[in-house]
Amino acid sequence: ITVVNRLAESTALHWHGIELESSSDGVPGWTGGPGGGGAGGRRSPAVAPNDSFAAVMTPPRAGTFIYHSHALTTSQVGDGLYGPLIVLDSGEVYDPAREVTWIVGGRERGDGDRAFLLLNGERAPAPLSLVVGRRYLVRLINITESNTADVTLLEGEGADASPVVWRPLAKDAIPLSGARASVRPARLRTSVGETYDFEMVPPRPGVWRLEVRNGGDLMVRQQVLVR
């Protein structure tokens, strides 16, 4: 993966959750251990403006990962330098009609408009449409500044609203089993850098909403139309 820096400042991209040589890991100057630095003693560099860097990796498993800046992290990640990194099994085909990815980010430190939450890069995301009876893979990612984000997917309005249900499939690209993979209300507290995969099947038409809170006053929501 070639990273080309079009910013006016140095940057570096970290491949969060993927095991790879430290020389490609995107943490500038990281040694990988005593006397380390990856194969041949190489260290992951910062990428200067108008420069580029080729990160080399062989993903060890399929799943939901994250890429994000690891240089001037607070400002660059707060400004949106991150995204989902989805690894598929050999022969698997990505199907956007059956997958939903929600990535929570934003700035949570500052006054007035300087503090906000984002859902997929938007303060007010457009409504999402789902189909009754269709089996969806939901990928949920937390790349906020604080330690937690509370996520709830609700059906109904006002005091009558209640969580829909989903089934956990994986956490941080590690498959879940047993009680950890049982059907449950779609309510989750996530920490920074965590990813989750869920299976979800809308049972009937209706209007849902996804709400994300940071444990304080900040919130972002998205309307979900099930037809």
How many strands in all?
A: 18
CATH superfamily of the largest domain: Cupredoxins -  blue copper proteins
Low-confidence stretches: none
- Overall geometry comes to globular
Q: State the end-to-end distance.
A: 39 Å
The CATH class of the largest domain, by name, is Mainly Beta
> What structural category characterises the helix and strand content?
mainly beta
Number of domains: 2
| Oligomeric state, counting identical vs distinct chains | single chain
Output the radius of gyration: 19 Å
At CATH's second level, what is the architecture of the largest domain?
Sandwich
Major sheet details? 7 strands, mixed
CATH-defined topology of the largest domain: Immunoglobulin-like
Average pLDDT works out at 89
The sequence of SSEs as H and E is EEEEHEEEEEEEEEEEEEE
Fold and architecture overview:
The structure is a single chain. This protein is mostly beta strands and 227 residues long. It folds into two domains: 2-87, Cupredoxins -  blue copper proteins (Immunoglobulin-like, Sandwich); 99-226, Sandwich (Immunoglobulin-like), CATH 2.60.40. Helices cover 3% and strands 41% of the residues. The chain is built from one helix and 18 strands. The strands form four sheets. Strands 6, 7, 9, 12, 13, 14 and 16 form a seven-stranded mixed sheet that branches. Strands 8, 10, 11, 15, 17 and 18 form a six-stranded mixed sheet that branches. The protein has a three-stranded antiparallel sheet with strand order 2-4-5. The mean pLDDT is 89.
